[in-house]
Write a structure and sequence with these properties.
73 residues, globular
Length: 73
């Protein structure tokens, strides 16, 4: 992540997502990289920017996903 930030210093906001059960990813983004959890997508709260994600809920293939944001200084 540090290398990406170095290569793209003009980036103001970094954003990423990871499944809720990937606890090592959550730890990395929050505790090591300085991201904040800003949203949790699940069957009751789908991503309005990508409405097609609702189809995963009906098929049972998707349990939830966190969205992370890092605001650069």
């Amino acid at each position: 992540m540090k290398e990406a930030e170095r290569l793209y210093p003009e980036t103001e906001i970094w954003e990423t997502c990871t499944p809720y059960f990937k606890t090592r990813n959550i730890h990395l983004y929050v505790n090591k990289c300085g991201f904040h959890i800003v949203e949790f997508f699940n069957k009751h709260h789908s991503d309005s920017r990508h409405p097609e994600t609702g189809s995963e809920y009906e098929s049972g293939d998707f349990d939830g996903m966190f969205r992370f944001v890092k605001q650069m200084k």
